[in-house]
Amino acid sequence: xxxxxxxxxxxxxxxxxxxxxxxxxxxxxxxxxxxxxxxxxxxxxxxxxxxxxxxxxxxxxxxxxxxxxxxxxxxxxxxxxxxxxxxxxxxxxxxxxxxxxxxxxxxxxxxxxxxxxxxxxxxxxxxxxxxxxxxxxxxxxxxxxxxxxxxxxxxxxxxxxxxxxxxxxxxxxxxxxxxxxxxxxxxxxxxxxxxxxxxxxxxxxxxxxxxxxxxxxxxxxxxxxxxxxxxxxxxxxxxxxxxxxxxxxxxxxxxxxxxxxxxxxxxxxxxxxxxxxxxxxxxxxxxxxxxxxxxxxxxxxxxxxxxxxxxxxxxxxxxxxxxxxxxxxxxxxxxxxxxxxxxxxxxxxxxxxxxxxxxxxxxxxxxxxxxxxxxxxxxxxxxxxxxxxxxxx
Length: 393
What we know:
The structure is a single chain. This protein is an all-alpha fold. The protein has one domain (2-358). The protein has 17 helices and 2 strands. It has helices spanning 2-11, 18-38, 61-67, 70-90, 95-126, 131-142, 144-156, 158-161, 167-182, 192-209, 216-236, 259-282, 286-297, 299-318, 334-358, 360-381, 386-392; strands at 40-44, 47-51. The chain has a two-stranded antiparallel ribbon. The longest helix has 32 residues, at 95-126. It is globular and about 60 Å long. It starts with a helix and ends with a helix. Mean pLDDT is 87; it is low at 365-393.
């Protein structure tokens, strides 16, 4: 293990900003832990349905402020996307080639999930599983894909939005919510915010790539201003305090995104920018950097299969014939939360099994791209340094 840690550290180019990778890793971990904590599968008279502890335990709401970390992922996506597009243009690459490279690692892992679950769904239907149960399971598996579709769309639009000021999409979100909630407009208007809402942190990331957002003052302004705006919206404008959807609630901050979700995202982006310095110092330690680097290499696999891992543990638990606390029981008290925390290592172990089976679908694209980069460099300037090739891969 020490040798692996040293090799990862030595293969990392000196110019790589390790803190950016750490922010991406933290965002992915936040989403996974959030899903594992606020999603329960209840077996009731042969039917499996989803429930959330947030329905009966509103005191858990602050957990959603920590674990709903999508804005940070879009911030990093905007920064990396804008920098890579500028580098591609400088190197003479076409837009199509750049976009294909950026999206390549999405296609194979998503295809693997879809194929496995199409087969699984057919098998469950053939064995007599009810449509309500199947709908519950497929919704949990497929719901993360909306995020990937939005991210892919914003990545494709990078040349158009790379210099767009974040205030423009923020103003659009504001007006959409004014029409929806203030003027009793049609609910479908809110779906415009799926693109506009996440475009705000994506544009912040693009500004970061251009050299903006470098001083700590900007981070504090985003953090304090976003937090204050979110508090005012929750206290006086009727927005829910939870930053994820709560079953049965009249309004969800996330589905589709509301103005409160976007202002909260601004606060998260400010916090992320303030963390850059401490993260850079921490990640000078080879062991810490190795953990972040390895997680990033399999980020798509972990994100796509974490719900399946939780459902697999739940299904195996049903074989005992009795409802297991924190796994099959109704999430209606603090005791459920404590037991649920004890199940998290089991979910993680199941996710490791999924990773072992399916991470090659993500890594194959990375290896193919590494060979293309290596051949191109060798043709233009001779064999590159080993550390540079490994860092690029």
